[in-house]
Amino acid sequence: KGEMVREGTDGTVISYGRLLPLCAQAADELSRDHGHTFDVIDLRTLCPYDWDMVSRSVQKTGRVLIVNEDTEITNYAEHLLRRIVDDHFYDLAVRPRTLMGK
């Protein structure tokens, strides 16, 4: 099961591993400085992953950013992005995005 590290309403940030603390820190700063709150999800495992948690969060916030260290060529976030679009196209307020390594 994944872990909800922060709870919010303005967007969903999905990450795992080394970048997760940076995502939580960014969410805290945006909340403190601008009043925007975000669900920050730690996937904890990639296979299987907690699709139920991801799905509920996407339905709630309508905005998604997936953050990981993968490169563009072999990026696990692309799988999540595709599934989010396939299952939640009409729930999304904006296009989901990935933030990845160089």
Topology:
Elements: E1 3-6, E2 11-15, H1 20-34, E3 38-42, H2 51-61, E4 64-67, H3 76-88, E5 97-99
Parallel strand pairs: 2-3, 2-4, 4-5
Antiparallel strand pairs: 1-3
Describe this structure as you would to a colleague.
The protein is of the alpha/beta class and 102 residues long. It has three helices and five strands. The longest helix is centred in the N-terminal third of the chain and has 15 residues, at 20-34. The termini are far apart.
Describe what is shown at a glance.
The chain is α/β, with parallel strands linked by helices. The chain has three helices and five strands; from the N terminus they run ββαβαβαβ.
Largest β sheet strand count, sense and barrel closure: 5 strands, mixed
Order of secondary-structure elements = EEHEHEHE
- The count of strands amounts to 5
**Beta fraction of the residues?**
15-25%
The number of distinct helices, counting runs of at least 4 residues, comes to 3
The overall pLDDT average reads 95
Radius of gyration: 13 Å
What class do helices, strands and sheet pairing give?
alpha/beta
Strand order of the largest sheet: 1-3-2-4-5
Low-confidence stretches: none
User: Overall 3D geometry?
Assistant: globular
Q: Distance N terminus to C terminus? A: 29 Å
Q: Helix content range of the residues, please?
A: 25-40%
Question: Which short descriptors sum up this protein?
Answer:
about 20% strand; 5 strands; alpha/beta; 3 helices; about 100 residues; single chain
